[in-house]
Specification:
It is a single chain. The protein is of the alpha/beta class. Strands 1-2-4-3-5-6-7-8 form an eight-stranded mixed sheet, with helices on both faces. It has a two-stranded antiparallel ribbon with strand order 9-10. A hairpin with a 5-residue loop joins strand 1 and strand 2. The longest helix is centred in the middle third of the chain and has 21 residues. It starts with 16 loop residues before the first helix and ends in a 13-residue tail after the last helix.
């Protein structure tokens, strides 16, 4: 253990998974100023990139993929951008379609297995900033996308190093987990946002004749499985939710990754269950896997106070991306 990296050890008051998951959302984080760039896609749609720093003079760029219905304003993205700024690192937030504050143009949106759009962003970065190494960080849904991209591309990956945080690597298991107990509140919050976006697309006639349901039926969707079966799957070329979950889950791609990649999970993540946790045989030698007893979903509070918590993630991410370190054993590993 170097003195640049501390182990993860949550304080007694942050060992509850819901405290770890909810308190970060409520904690104010100042983000440095960002500049927006629109990237036009080959299918007529667009994605927005939010930039920190000048990529023309950067030796490396941190590419950030947010989670479901997230953006550059998400608490975890704001914290990483703040620490990138303090470390003098150039960074860019890749917004999934329709997540930058403006609806995308097409009926399709984004999903957990969509590696096409991040491939477009990375190709653009390679073309315009060839001097810069590309490092990537993916959170939750964005982490699953990143893991799948790395496994699909193998030697052709544009990414030099990567970190995957709280990724739902087995989508069917996560969908079932969110239908139980307190976790249903997280599902309700996110489904409400997804239904509103689908409703807006119906009202704008973007989605007419391409979804498997009508506008009136959108409000009846209460679970991720229902939404994915009736909306996500048909809009993105899957036969149904089961087909989508099987083809889009990142778990099976970990063994194919050949770039240094750190995967961080918490065993108490209220969005997941044990089916998401890979065995040693399921990830390649280039994958460093950290499984912590506590941490919630994209939480990992490791100190501070209730009103000013301190976080493990940003220091761990930047350490992994910028230092050629070997595996660091987490203090509360379950392995």
């Amino acid at each position: 253990m170097t003195d640049l990296m501390r182990p993860f050890s949550p304080p007694w008051w942050a060992k509850n998974p819901h405290v770890q998951t909810i308190l970060p959302v409520l904690t104010k984080v100042e983000s440095p100023a960002l500049s927006r760039q629109r990237l036009e896609l080959s299918d007529g749609d667009f994605i927005d990139l939010d930039w920190l720093g000048d990529p023309c003079n950067a030796s490396s760029i941190v590419v950030i993929l947010h989670g479901l219905e997230g953006s550059s304003d998400s608490h975890y993205v704001r914290r990483l951008l703040r620490d990138c700024y303090r470390s003098g690192l150039c960074a860019v937030v890749h917004h999934h379609r329709g997540c930058s504050g403006e609806a995308n143009r097409l009926a399709r949106s984004y999903h957990s297995g969509d590696t096409q759009d991040i491939s477009a962003t990375l190709a653009y970065l390679q073309q315009h900033f060839p001097q810069a190494k590309l490092n990537a960080v993916g959170y939750s849904l964005g982490g699953n996308v990143l893991a799948k991209y790395l496994g699909e591309l193998h030697d052709n990956s544009a990414i030099d190093r990567a970190v995957v945080v709280s990724a739902p690597l087995q989508l069917s298991a996560c969908a079932k987990r969110l239908e139980k107990g307190f976790s249903t509140l997280y599902q309700w919050h996110l489904i409400k946002q997804l239904r509103q976006k689908a409703t807006d697309k119906f009202n704008n006639r973007t989605i007419v004749n391409q979804a498997a349901i009508t506008l009136k039926q959108v409000c009846t969707l209460k679970t991720f499985y229902q939404f994915d079966h009736q909306v996500t799957a048909p809009l993105h070329g899957f036969e149904g939710a089961d087909d989508y979950y099987a083809k889009a889950s990142g778990l099976g791609y970990l063994s194919k990754i050949n770039r240094p990649t750190l995967v961080i999970h918490a065993a108490d993540d209220p969005f997941m269950n044990a089916d998401v946790i890979p065995s040693a045989s399921q990830f390649s030698a280039d994958v460093t896997y950290e499984l912590h007893q506590h941490g919630g979903h994209v939480g990992f509070i490791d100190g501070g106070t209730l009103f000013k918590p301190r976080f493990y993630l940003e220091q761990r991410i930047i350490h992994f991306l910028t230092i050629n370190n070997e595996h660091i054993e987490p203090s509360e590993s379950l392995n």
